[in-house]
Amino acid sequence: MLTDLHLRDFVIVEEAHLELLPGMTALTGETGAGKSIVVDALAMIAGGRASGDVVREGAERAEVAATFTALPAAAIAWLEEQAIAHDGEVLARRVVGADGRSRAWLNGQPVPLQSMRQFVDRLIDVHGQQEFQQLISRDAQRMLLDEHAGASASVARVATLHAGLREAERELDSRRTAAANADARRELLRFELGELRDALTGIADLPTLFVERKRIADRGRLAEAARAALALSYDGDDGSANDLVARAQAALRSAAAADPALQAVARLLDGVAIDLREAADALRRYLEALDVDPARVEEIERRAAALEGLARKHRVRPEELPARAAELASELDAVENSVAGLAQLDERCALLRSQYRAAADELSAARRAGAADLATRITTLMQSLGMPGGRFEIAVATTPESCAAHGQDVVDFLVAANPGQSARPIAKVASGGELSRIGLAIQVAAAARTRTACLVFDEVDTGVGGATAEIVGRQLRTLAQTGQVLCVTHLPQVASQAHSQWRVAKQSNGRTTRARIERLDEGGRVEEIARMLGGVDVSAQARAHAREMLERGSGAANERPAKRSRPGR
Q1: What's the pLDDT at 547?
Q2: Dihedral (Cα; 96, 104, 101, 40), 10-degree rounding
Q3: What per-residue confidence (pLDDT) applies to 544?
């Protein structure tokens, strides 16, 4: 419940403090006095858009603060989710500077405007003339029906399934497109991979193959060098290194016996002789290896040439061909798996489609049940609002083959304003007065099911008068039995039904204009309602009529709203 509303430098209000009571509160005043300023302030506290234009001329900033108590469960749950401390009471405050910059707080904790909006939406529900204009939209009609039918959970489930189905279908389409080209790609990959695997079979080390190829190509020069080295080191007839070492060993053999110091040198020469013999053996084996079978030469050349050709084809170096083969194998697996996964993905789409249709059918059933109940309520309200032959219908047309995030239904609000007329779409109802009354009936019926603690009606009684206006007031007073109702009105018949009343008045000194908002006592209410009845000059007869209306209004129902609850006070 909204218990306090404080305005400072807001539009033309210098400062105002409203202590609001349970039940129905009427906000009245002369035309142009700014009765809707309170509604505008609530819109600002609810996170609505606000610019520097809301700042009173000459001031630096505008401020609106609202205190809420007796919070509903949804609001408490939100506060706890956001870790905002409270004791069952919340002060929502918003400041807008003349430069347009805006800040918001909940219980002194700074919050984004989006958070402010989420919180206050759980507490206040505003109904105005613009809202009815929005109800001409089929989307707005469907959402209002869903709210009345209590189908929010079903709507959310249908939307979730629709999103999952659309995502799965997009993936399936992508896979199918890829599969359309998969056959040709798969065959190419298989061919190229086969080429590489055949060329690489039996080759443990590619660099070794190419080294061997080079050695065979240069074997004449290599053999010549090896023979020369063998001759010089061991097998030469003109004094090889081995012969020279043998002579040196013989020269030291007798001398080393006389001087042990030469024995170490003799051992070194023995080692050299051994190394020369091993080197000669290695050179002989090397020369034997250079004598390659012509068939082997041809095989090495063929394989090396094939590998070089494949390397050019795949634009890699020959030693990178094994890695390229691994890449092709991985791509081939991916192509084959993508085709194999089509069946599973198709089954998943079918399952999601089945679940979506089941959820959509359940939602359609809830909408039809809710439509019957809401149409009956609105019809009753229309007839009580001066349209005795009026009839309201809600058509729910289901198209099974359709698939939308909101389900498979098209919702239409239909109206027959007079007996004998066929029901037509609400947008085609011509009479402005009829539109106002139908809109009010819809809003009252919708508000009766709202979960918010405070209902605000901004001049929803436009276009009605007389006995119908009194009925409007009674309807609003009835709503106030279960929640708080704030009503901006220009009709005395409506204002007289309120439990309390505030008046908005303009004051001007010729240079500046200010709006003053004051709570009316019993005498003030008589004067205000008499003014609303009789105009500028209030007669004694108008005052008597005003008293009668207030007495009739207070006795119209045997209820009294619950006392204001202020936890912790």
Answers
A1: 92
A2: -40
A3: 92
Tell me which DSSP letter residue 384 carries. H
List average pLDDT for each run of 10 residues in the chain, which is 569 residues long: 94 92 91 82 89 90 94 88 91 94 94 92 78 73 88 93 93 78 76 83 70 65 72 74 80 75 82 86 77 65 77 84 86 72 85 95 95 92 82 92 92 86 78 68 73 76 75 85 87 92 86 87 93 81 91 66 46
CB neighbour class for 568 (10 Å; exposed up to 12, middle 13-18, buried from 19): exposed
Distance (Å, rounded) from C-alpha 183 to C-alpha 537? Answer: 93
SS (H, E, C) 367-382: HHHHHHHHHHHHHHHH
Q: Where are the alpha helices (DSSP H) in 87-205?
A: 113-120, 129-134, 138-149, 152-180, 182-200
Distance CA 442, CA 375 (A): 9
**If DSSP codes are grouped into helix, strand and coil, which group holds residue 452?**
coil
The angle, 0 to 180 degrees and rounded to 10, between the axes of the packed helices 182-200 and 321-384 is: 160
Question: Dihedral of the CA atoms 80, 82, 86, 89 (nearest 10)?
Answer: -100
Locate 211 and state its tokens: 């080294």
Domain boundaries, the chain: 182-335
Say if residues 360 and 158 touch (Cβ distance below 8 Å): yes
Question: Residue 497: its pLDDT value, please?
Answer: 92
Q: What per-residue confidence (pLDDT) applies to 65?
A: 96
Threshold 0.70, pTM exceeds: no
Separation of alpha carbons 357 and 351, rounded Å: 10
Res 25: pLDDT: 94
Give SS3 for 29. Answer: coil
- Say how many Å lie between the first and final Cα of the chain, rounded: 15
Helix (H), strand (E) at residue 479: helix 466-479
Measured over the CA atoms of residue 178, residue 179, residue 184 and residue 189, the dihedral's sign is positive
- Identify whether the C-beta of residue 118 lies closer than 8 Å to the C-beta of residue 452: no
pLDDT at residue 450, as a whole number: 62
The Cα-based distances of 290 to 212, 214, 215, 218 in angstroms read: 10, 12, 8, 10
What region, left, alpha or beta, does residue 239 occupy, with left being phi > 0 and alpha being psi -120 to 50 degrees?
A: left
508, two tokens: 């001007």
Q: What is the pLDDT of residue 557?
A: 47
Long-range contacts at 97-102 (CB < 8 A, ≥ 24 apart) = 97/52, 97/55, 97/60, 97/61, 98/52, 98/55, 98/59, 98/60, 98/61, 99/52, 100/51, 100/52, 102/50
Give the pLDDT confidence score for residue 344 in this predicted structure.
83
CA 382 distance to own-chain centroid: 40
Q: CB pairs under 8 A, 24+ apart, for 522-530?
A: 522/550, 525/495, 525/501, 525/550, 526/550, 528/28, 528/495, 528/501, 528/503, 529/492, 529/495, 529/496
What pLDDT is stored for residue 235 in this prediction?
76
The per-residue DSSP string of 108-120 comes to TEE--HHHHHHHH
| Polymer length in residues for the chain | 569
Whole-angstrom CA distances from 20 to 4, 94, 389, 555, 565 are 6, 19, 38, 21, 12
Handedness of CA 230, 232, 234, 237 (dihedral sign): positive
State the DSSP H helix or E strand holding residue 312, giving kind and residue range, or none if neither: helix 294-314
